[in-house]
Amino acid sequence: MKKRIGLLLALTLTAGMLLSGCGNSSAEKEDGITTDAATDTEAAEGAGGLDTGSFLKIVELANPNTVDPECTTDYYLVSMNIFNRLVEVKANDDGTSEIVPSLADSWKISEDGLTYTFKLHEGVKYTNGADLTSDDVLYTFTRLLTYSNSLNGDIVDQIKGSDELKDGTAAALEGFTVIDDYNFSVTLKEPYAAFLACLSTPGCSILDRETTDEAGSDFGIDPAKTIGTGYFKFESWTVNSEMVLEANKDCWAGAPGCDGIVIKIVPDEDTQRMMFENGEIDILNLEYAKSQADYFLESDTYKDQIVSGNRVGVYYIAMNQSFEPLNDVKVRKAIQMAIDRQSILDALFGGRGTLENGILPNGLIGYNKDLPAINYDVEGAKELLTEAGYPDGFDLEISQSSEANSTTENVNQIVQAMLGEIGINVTINVLDDATYLDMRNAGELAMYNSSWSADFNDPDNFIYTFFGTVENTNRRCLGYTDTDIIDRVAAARAIVNEADRIAEYQELEKIIIQDDASWVPLFSVKHLFVVNPRVKNFTVSWNGWSDNYYQNVTIEE
Amino acid sequence: MEQNNNGLSLMKEKIGLMMRQNKMAVFSALVILIIVIMAIFAPVFAPYDQTKQDLVNRLISPSFQHILGTDDLGRDIFSRMLYGARVSLSIGLFPTIASMLIGTVLGLIAGYYGKKIDFVIMRLADITLAFPSLLLAMVVMYTLGAGIINIFLAIVIVGWAQTARVVRSQTLALKESEYVEAARSIGVSNLKIMFRHILPNCIPSLIVLFTLNIPANILQESSLSFLGIGAQPPFTSWGLMVSDGKQYIFTDPWIAIAPGVAILVIALAFNFLGDGLRDILDPYMKEQ
Amino acid sequence: MAKKVLKRILVSIPVLIGVMLILFLMLNVLPGDPVSVMMKEHAKPEVIERMTEEMGLNDPVMVRFFRYLWNALHGDFGTSYKLNRPVGALIANAFPNTLKLAIAAAIVAWVIGIPAGIISAIKQNTIIDRLFMGVSLVGVSMPVFWAALLFQYCFAYKWKLLPVSGVETWQSFILPAVVLGWSSAGTISRLTRCNLLEILQEDFIRTARAKGLRESAVIVGHAFKNALLPVVTMMAIQVASLLSGAVITESIFSIPGIGRLAVDAISSRDMPLLQGTVLFTTILIIAGNLLADVLYSLIDPRIRTEG
Q1: Reported ipTM
Q2: Among A18, A239, A434, whose Cβ lies nearest the Cβ of C90?
């Protein structure tokens, strides 16, 4: 029997070693996943021993890849709050917005629209005590263009010499001149009216040369090494669990209104909603819990706790002209007319939004509210199909990712039913996310629905993204064929006179969407949040993103 | 274990015994039968076209027009459940049959021939069983893409190994028996021994396994649907309906509760029936 | 005995390699590539190309497979594409949460499963048998996410007895453990019931009965001990299978465990992370089976596991 017990012990040990083997070796190399600005022992407690009771508690659906603003295109919550930009966008009460100074106190634009001279705010310090200088701006722009994981190079690729820097034929960014620690100038390749707006995007957050360089690939991953000038500092990050931002009381622009932010990561929408009602989180994003908006709007407890903003973005259905019979403008027009957009808006968003008839949505500079409405007209659509030679309709495939949210799924199912009314037999083709994105980027989908919301407040962000180059229209599965129009979209970027530029964009918009019917514009929506009564002064970002700025939020107990 | 090839007729007797002893199993079989009939004749029973949307009358509570109400696109939930039953039952049935056929043949071969072929088949089975089953199914679904046929394949790929193991161990026991020895000595072919003499003795275990695998696979599909890679529109399954209706649990709970209860009922019925069959056919079969 | 265990361990090695190879091959016929998943909307062809090259994704499958094995042997499981952290460290940090959940769930499974199995065996074919088996079978018969939602709704939301989600306190583990544990209670109760029924037929029980012992004494004194042995050895297997069954439970209850990592990894084509999590759970399952076998033959020397 003794022998047996010995063996049992040995076995248990072996098994134990097997089990823990994977962990230990690499855990020693790295100091774990709860990376923490405080010490390692505290790390286990997630918030690093901080008392987070008075912190604002918000929630995210997924653990982000990184908070490095240059290496993401869809997650800016942390970078918006721990960094600053040269300029910021301020939303006005009337729905318009303007660009206001931030790290840059002032700027001058030359007559020809080519040279921008900036003056930095003096005395700005990073949370590690380093000073902000013009060199950091140069570093930020250079990193955007050259860092191997950067995804946001296009923010500054209008600067002279950006291509040479990118392909390695130049060592420095030619268009950037450091005048002194607080003054610098930027020269563009050609006039680009949206340049200033570009600088306001979170992707263009200003980083400290020394700490960012030193952090290397840990930047944006390890909170202790992710240093900014913003209202909050990055305190800890426990993968798939939570991130903690602590107030930067010494922030150059003043301390934020609350002591800090706990960002919980909760992948299930219904769980989020229960947490909100139980007081475990302070703000619930109703875009994640869309089906629940009506409940909160009608509830006596919450109806006064709704904060909303226009999502400056457009829901659309792309129609790929490289697919038969979508290459026929009559067919595309028929599809535009066969979709009852108001019903979709009513059913899925409780009617909280605006029907869109173009590309540039409500709230964006250049929004044209006088565009003729695209009417819902089943008979007219049938006639057009007959004229086009498809009196009995045809088969069509609309694709969606298996990870699509319920809005996308529902829009597709409704569209399937509505197009069925005019004889088009729509199949919904569900692809896994990776395949879907691959095929979409390769321009291989006949049809899909999606939405695009503003990164910066300029028509360029919409019209150029979809119709600015042949490559762009193919990557969005539009297959737009009129190269004259595409050239005009690209050329419009360089029109210095603002009014002329907007007029040109509006004309192009009308041609592309109304005459050529190259996509089905659906609607733009209100973005609703419901807020715990203890939270004051919460506002939605000017563009209605899910990621918001929190410096003005205060908590009253 | 009975070692005559009269397993089938003996089984009939035993089932008769079960019907007398275990009313629960009989009742379960009845419930299953009713659901199967309703699924087969879904077009007859369904009051509405299951895909017909009515965006004005969405999220209607149960009423005389819509006995289980309507979903978020205004489709009649009862009608959708009838059609969903077809998908859910097919997913319970067909891949289970396929995976058990494969598993039975491989198990017979492995157990009967032994040696290298046994080693190879059993290591393959070990590999399959070593995978966390839902993860394996997910990887298969992501490899093949979402859709009903691919769910079938995923379930077959995940499911064959268990049957193979059970059949192999019974074959091992049987092939040494005097009875099989005798058959062999008079020159009966291997194939005949395997399928005429050994297989019938495995049938009781297979029936139990079959009955218990069906609800497991229906549930597997519901998990895949929850993860977005199960049944896809215009098809619907009970799993997909629960998953889609989940978001309305606070305001319109019937949307998720009705199909969830349906899954619970059918799975419970199969489990009771399976246990009842196990009691009389194969009382000492151990859980995998 | 020691020889046999050693042999089992040796046999497990090709199984492990097989698991990895099959996973590798399956993921390689996948059409989508991880780089475009990482970049979503904004992917530019030249960036995709550059990153694909940097991640070594242009090498042939087998080269990548052996490179992976080689590195894994040296304790380097690669860096997650999605989470930008070493896979080993991610798993090491997620494992305690999953383990806590699995152990708590195993306890729940026993608390429901063993009494239900015993009672229904003693009262075979009565209404009580059906009732107790029914309770434990309901768990196996519900979609896990549906059960989870109903539990959250009732206990956390309506009655506010427990936290909705998270891992901050031990209370947070109650709901997920009940959901997960209940879903495998059926297995335990079936096994207990079968064993007990089997043993009640055996000679030594008949002898005890014949000696005029009371039925309860027979059951408690003789049958239990023998019937529960195999159930207890199930522990190892049970915990391992719960580890892998935690995928959905972890998502709904926001538990940062292995299952969450695996789901993320699959949907974002995060090969190193997926390989790592599957390798890890597979090792656990194999080790669990092995341990169960060994425990079984140690505790009950009568029984020798076959072939």
Answers
A1: 0.85
A2: A239
